Amino acid sequence: MIIIAPAGDLTIKVVEEKKIVINGVQSVDHVTTEFLVHRRVLMDNSPHWKNMLFTSNFVERRQNVVSLEGDSALSMEIWFRLLHKVPAVSTYTAPLTEMWHLIYAADKYFLDFERLYTWFSFWYDRQDLDELDPRQLLYPCWRFDHVKGFAAVTKRLVYGSEGHITEWKPEDEEKLHIPPRLLQQLNAAKGRLRTLLHQELWRPGEKLIEAPCMCSKATFHDYHRSLYVIVIYPLETVLRKTSMAELLSRLDLFDYNAEHTACVRYCQQNFRTLIEHSQVYLGEYFDGLCLDCISSCKTKTGDKDWDYWKHHDLKQHEWVTGCRIPHKQPTWYYSFLGRPEDRNQFTKRLKSKKCYREDDEDW
Fold it and tell me: CB within 8 A of 349, min separation 6: which ones?
């Protein structure tokens, strides 16, 4: 038995279903974990448990031992510790998949989800992020309102993904995911980086193609061939199967100088310095998505409608107003465009009033 409250008056038996495979045959095993808790604490923090443990219609009211089925024992331990305000340090090593169980428990028992925010922050700080696929952390960081983690994860996805950015989920967890509009904005930011890379690499060549000198043709060819040798060109083909981070890393191998006989005015450019400038510019362009900029409750201008009309014209001190992390303008831009539409909020209110019709989605 796990003692949550030494003077507890209620034993909770969490009956957990675990899939096991024996000789290639999958079956379900039931594992029971017992917790000693305070009945009053559970009742004060959950309408579900209040009805179960207080209402006379439920047999659990007269019992000192109550069983909960279909829950994760570890997620329930975390919840019991937080509700009883006892140390939860031992749970900071919980596996990533436990985050989904915590969320399901909150929904199932009507628990205050914000109680988990601080716990998740401590959990996140103890993870080896290099060992985790950023797609795995995308939903938990969004759901637990971890602004630092969400920005870091979304930045890693934009710079580190090959092809279309997608989200990861545990097996049989289809219902929990981030809003599709946020994935759309991540792929839009990735596409913008691709456009900027093309512009930066073309900049030295643009000067050469307009040059009237006889040596510009050879210099133009040699410059682009140098990019081809380090597998940067052809850019559109390479980008289909290469991440932006990998492309920027390959540019470290760029080593081209025009022939000493080439003209100084047009062809003797400092190509290496130009490429290094592009690497720095592109590498620092996007800081990830900002949860505070996504929130329509935290306006930059004081009015969400004026945020819309001025979203492209905000000054540096304005686009970080109310944000818990520093960031540059592109983060504000793509985060703002990921805000939920008012229509979505309106239809939710209609649903809550039970006057909503499914065909109203076509409004």
Answer: none
Tokens linked to 185: 């904005």
Instruction: Give the three-class secondary structure for 288.
Output: coil
**309-345 burial, b if ≥16 CB within 10 A, otherwise e?**
eebeebeeeebbeebebebebbbbbbbbbbbeeeeee
User: Which residues lie below 8 Å from residue 139, measured CB to CB, with a gap of 6+?
Assistant: 99, 167, 169, 176, 177, 178
Residue 363 predicted with pLDDT over 50: no
Region 21-43: mean pLDDT is 84
This prediction has a pTM of: 0.85
- Maximum C-alpha span of the chain: 97
Rounded CA separation 94/64 (Å): 29
Lowest mean pLDDT of 22-36, 78-92, 250-264, name the range: 22-36
> Among residues 233, 262, 237, 266, which one has the least CA distance to residue 250?
233
Encoded tokens for 300:
């930059």
Alpha-carbon distance of 152 to 289, in angstroms, equals: 8
> How far apart are alpha carbons 237 and 321 in whole angstroms?
40
Cβ 229 vs Cβ 176: under 8 Å = no
Query: Is residue 338 within 8 Å of residue 289, measured between CB atoms?
Result: yes
CA distance 264 to 211: 11
